[in-house]
Amino acid sequence: MNTRFIPLIPYIFFILGLVFWSGCGEDSESEAIEVSASSLENPGIFLTKGQFEIMEMEWGTLQKRTFSDELSIQGTIRVPVEGMQDVSAFFGGNVSGLKLIEGEKVSRGQVLFYLENPEFVRLQQEYLEVKSQIEFLKAEFERQETLYSEQITSQKNWLKTKADYHSALAKEASLKQQLRMIHINAEELKPENIRSRAPIVAPISGFVEEIFVVPGAFLPASDPALSLLNKDHLHVEFKLFEKDALKIQVGQTIKVRIPEQVESIVDAQVYVIGQAVNPDRQILVHAHLLDQADQEKFVPGMYVEGRLQLASQMGMSLPESAVLSEGDKRFILILAQENGKGYELEKIEVSVGQTQEGYTQVLPKRDLKADQKVLVKGGFSLI
Fold first, then answer.
1. Closest-CA residue to 200 (of 235, 176, 224, 229)
2. pLDDT digit string (tens) for the chain, length 383 residues
3. Which CA distances in Å does 318 have to 241, 315, 361?
4. What SS3 string covers the chain?
5. Architecture per CATH, 40-65+315-382
6. What is the Cβ-side half-sphere exposure of residue 18, based on CA atoms within 13 angstroms?
7. Which CATH architecture describes the domain 68-81+231-313?
8. What is the pTM of this model?
9. Rounded to a whole number, what is the distance in angstroms from the first to the last CA of the chain?
10. What CATH architecture does domain 83-117+196-230 belong to?
């Protein structure tokens, strides 16, 4: 049995030797590629075009950009007073025809619901009665005025007919205004179209914010039935601590964003600054959104963050990803030379300033051409 396996031993050692040599070769090649791409101790860094594409790197150039000193503030989306409206009635009544839901859009003049009350019938009746008497009272007043001028009747009779006529005119005007308040057109009122319910219409266009009554309930006079909200002119109300009060002026720009949506930034402009400090040692600052289309992104009551733009200056900038760190120093990688095999990069130390909206202000320690290519994406993989 032993003599049969002895001839196979040399072949086994030969195969194992091939496997070991092959594995060592792969490790050496992999290590060589890694060193050539990541060694920053050398003055130059070489990348093949294949490595450049695999790591999804990108070129860019230095661009002029305005950078501003900023002050971080917090605020809330608000609706001006004229955009908020409680809907109530001048006369009490039972609610009917209410089919609205919160959040529903309504237009100015749209019938929201109806109020039913026997008092509405009485007002219409009184108006029609007074209106029918006015023509008679007017004729009697004119007749008595003629007789009095001819000294045929007494002054007492003339004054009485005059008083009756003017009293009827005043009552007619009063009833007409009361009917107008419940949205009944007195000019079109006739005995055959007297009605017991009055429409309640929307005073503004907007959305139903909250409903306080249900169909069939009695709504007392002047009690709110529902509230409407108009979003056509939203503004942002910021709170600024009194120590920063001297930094803000009307007309300054504020970069506004929702905390959860960092990439969505809109511009607002300061238009009113509060003139009193509240108990929390803050002043209120109101700002208008500059683009009306941006209002669709916000909802009244929403919390927002703002960056108040203070002193501004021009500077050269690169995307934030182009600036790399090495200890306490900052640098960028520029294209030093390109050939058929790849790219040779050179490390340039820079001073950095502010970072705003994804761009960093940079000042290279040596002069660069305006069209100098800079690695703006993927450089972190070379560290």
1. 224
2. 333 333 433 433 333 343 333 444 444 333 333 334 433 344 578 888 888 888 888 888 888 887 767 788 899 999 988 889 999 988 899 999 999 999 999 999 999 999 999 999 999 999 999 999 998 999 988 888 888 888 887 888 888 999 999 999 999 999 999 999 988 999 889 999 999 999 999 999 999 999 999 999 999 988 999 999 998 888 899 998 888 888 888 888 888 988 877 667 888 999 999 888 888 889 999 999 888 788 878 888 899 998 887 766 677 888 888 888 888 888 888 888 888 888 888 888 888 877 777 888 888 888 888 888 888 888 887 76
3. 33, 10, 7
4. CHHHHHHHHHHHHHHHHHHHHHHHHHHHHHHHHHHHHHCCCCCEEEEEHHHHHHCCCEEECCEEEEEEEEEEEEEEEECCHHHEEEEECCCCEEEECCCCCCCCEECCCCEEEEEECHHHHHHHHHHHHHHHHHHHHHHHHHHHHHHHHCCCCCHHHHHHHHHHHHHHHHHHHHHHHHHHHCCCCHHHCCHHHCCCEEEEECCCCEEEEEECCCCCCEECCCCEEEEEECCCCCEEEEEEEHHHHHHCCCCCEEEEECCCCCCCEEEEEEEEECCCCCCCCEEEEEEEECCHHHHHHCCCCCEEEEEEEEEEEEEEEEEHHHCEEECCEEEEEEEEEECCCEEEEEEEEEEEEEEECCEEEEEECCCCCCCCCEEEECHHHHC
5. Beta Barrel (2.40)
6. 5
7. Beta Barrel (2.40)
8. 0.57
9. 60
10. Beta Barrel (2.40)
